[in-house]
UniProtKB/TrEMBL annotation:
Cellular component GO terms, alphabetical: ATP-binding cassette (ABC) transporter complex, substrate-binding subunit-containing; maltose transport complex
Entry-linked Gene3D superfamilies: 2.40.50.100, Nucleic acid-binding proteins, P-loop containing nucleotide triphosphate hydrolases
Name of the protein in its database record: sn-glycerol-3-phosphate ABC transporter ATP-binding protein UgpC
Lineage of the organism: Bacteria, Pseudomonadati, Pseudomonadota, Alphaproteobacteria, Hyphomicrobiales
Pfam families the UniProt entry points to: ABC_tran, OB_MalK
Source organism of the structure: Devosia ginsengisoli
GO molecular function, one term: ATP hydrolysis activity
Length: 359
């Protein structure tokens, strides 16, 4: 299996730069997920690795070999697309073995490799069916099987689950994670769904506007986001952001006043910032405590509550500011109620007005 190295990768379409100098090292056997909002460049970057898009400048190495000008079929890569791309007139067996047959591989070897892939993906009962006779999840497994039989150095997945319903997405996430564990191969996976990223990845690469915002393990990005964008993108529900102003500064700490919460003040161990500067206080839904349990209390009007069994998510507001609070299910808040929650300084994040992390 192979490692990958991207050094100064750029992509222009005419005068439009869509990938803006990406540097990234991917270890052999690592499961890496590119995540970000639509249009951030994650699929373009994947297609550049595959050889389906020309690299304007920079260096792409796979297994220590420069690949910029190598044909896609010779890069040792297999790609699984969002749309499955199965041949409708071929059976599952024929679809899975087509690339090998096209490459002139012997029939007995094709049969053996297709059989091995079918066993791994539990496709053996479906080998003689046509794509129209399969469910969406089964078609996606065939597309993955077609990639497996090529025995690639690297698997590339481009939003492979976006056409599936919610239940099938969960099932296929488990299947892909199991597949990675069994094959022990390098996987690069593109998604806009941060839940997929958090549950599948060894390493997450967060992209925005053609640049990498942060690279790290899922829980490291969740607990220690580099900036407000990453803090808001990683985690479900997203982090709450409360506008505030720095009203006092002493050695090694600042005091901020929340804009929409009766001048509630919170003192944080931050060395930067100037009195009068606008800032943003970030609080995860699960880090709100019961009133009186933290350093400050704020009162919210409940809009609606989602009851999910062991927990609830309470969607509330104050001064036009929408917040999400996680509560134990034993508390049954509903609309037209008011709740008081607390914020602890040691659970709060703070960002400047440009989104840079201060703490």
């Amino acid at each position: 299996m192979s490692s990958l190295s991207l050094k100064g990768i750029r992509k222009f379409y005419g005068s439009l730069e869509v990938i803006k100098g990406v540097d990234l090292d991917i270890k052999s056997k690592e499961f890496v997920v590119f995540v970000g909002p639509s249009g951030c460049g994650k699929s373009t970057l994947l297609r550049m690795i595959a050889g389906l898009e020309h690299i304007t400048s920079g260096e792409l190495d796979i297994g220590g070999t420069r690949m910029n000008d190598v044909e896609p079929s010779k890069r040792g890569i297999a790609m699984v697309f969002q749309t499955y791309a199965l041949y409708p007139h071929m059976t599952v067996r024929e679809n899975m073995g087509f690339a090998l047959r096209f490459a002139g591989v012997a029939k007995d070897q094709i049969a053996r490799q297709v059989g091995d892939a079918a066993r791994i993906l539990a496709l053996e009962p479906l080998l003689d069916r046509f794509p129209k006779e399969l469910s969406g999840g089964q078609r996606q497994r065939v597309a993955i099987g077609r990639a497996i039989v090529r025995n690639p150095q690297v698997f590339l997945f481009d939003e492979p689950l976006s056409n599936l319903d919610a239940e099938l997405r969960v099932h296929m996430r488990i299947e892909i994670a199991r597949l990675h564990k069994e094959l022990q191969t390098t996987i690069i996976y593109v998604t806009h769904d941060q839940v997929e990223a958090m549950t599948l990845a060894d390493t997450i690469v967060v992209l925005r506007d053609g640049i990498i915002e942060q690279v790290g393990r899922p829980l490291d990005l969740y607990d220690d986001p580099a900036n407000q964008f990453v803090a808001g993108f990683i985690g479900s529900p997203r982090m709450n952001f409360l506008p505030a102003t720095i009203v006092d500064k002493a050695t090694g700490k600042i005091t901020v006043e929340l804009t929409h919460h009766d001048k509630a003040r919170l003192t944080l161990p931050v060395t930067s910032g100037v009195v009068g500067d606008p800032v943003i206080v970030g609080v995860r839904a699960e880090h709100f405590g019961m009133g009186g349990a933290g350093d400050i209390d704020i009162t919210l009007d409940v809009d609606v509550a989602e009851h999910l069994g062991s927990t609830s998510y309470v969607y509330a507001s104050a001064g036009g500011e929408a917040l999400v609070v996680e509560r134990e299910e034993s508390r049954h808040e509903n609309g037209n109620e008011r709740i008081t929650v607390s914020i602890s300084a040691d659970k709060a994040y703070i960002f400047d007005d440009k989104g840079h992390r201060l703490r």
